[in-house]
């Protein structure tokens, strides 16, 4: 009888510990915080925002560690017209560790930083944007050999609306700016930035 009681008490204690562990692991300290939709483009402060992490699908927000030197230099820059203070564009770049001439260095993942232009807040929390490479490619004439010298274009990456707002003290932007490939078309991916 004592063995049965000991087994029952042990089972109850184990079950209660297990349920507490599962409960705490399902809470996301960032994504569980209230989300505030961007209500006006003026809420985006001019200057640099440092990348702090991302949220992919149902996973918790992954925060960049102190030793992740290259990810810590990822950035989002907010540019405003100096005379009107109207939002002009946003620039995004991200980095990875690469070996260059035998030395490890942080190198841009993109050939050119990504530029978010023609930004318009359609409704709170949803911004229409055009994401392109931050350079102009010179176009060729009809013969395909001679550069025109007058015609240029940018490489497009995304045109449409993305979610944008604030959560847990961070700027949260739906990820349409990196090269992450979604597993499904409905998978939600967010990037988190803090104002520098």
Automatic annotation (TrEMBL):
Domain of life: Bacteria
Protein name, UniProt field: Lipoprotein
């Amino acid at each position: 009888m004592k063995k049965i009681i000991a087994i029952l008490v042990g089972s109850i204690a184990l079950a209660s510990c297990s349920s507490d562990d599962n409960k705490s692991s399902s809470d996301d300290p960032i994504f569980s915080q209230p989300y505030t939709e961007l209500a006006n483009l003026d809420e985006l402060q001019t200057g640099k925002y440092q990348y702090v992490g991302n949220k992919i699908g149902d996973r918790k927000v992954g925060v960049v560690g102190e030793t992740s030197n290259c990810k810590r230099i990822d950035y989002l820059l907010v540019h405003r017209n100096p005379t009107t203070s109207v939002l002009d564009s946003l620039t995004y770049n991200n980095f990875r560790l690469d070996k260059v001439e035998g030395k490890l260095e942080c190198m841009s993942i993109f050939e050119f930083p990504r530029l978010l232009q023609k930004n318009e807040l359609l409704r709170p929390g949803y911004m229409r944007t055009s994401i392109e490479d931050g350079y102009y490619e010179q176009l060729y004439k009809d013969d395909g050999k001679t550069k025109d010298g007058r015609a240029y274009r940018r490489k497009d990456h995304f045109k449409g609306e993305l979610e944008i707002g604030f959560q847990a003290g961070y700027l949260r932007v739906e990820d349409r700016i990196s090269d992450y490939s979604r597993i499904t078309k409905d998978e939600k991916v967010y990037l988190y930035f803090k104002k520098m």
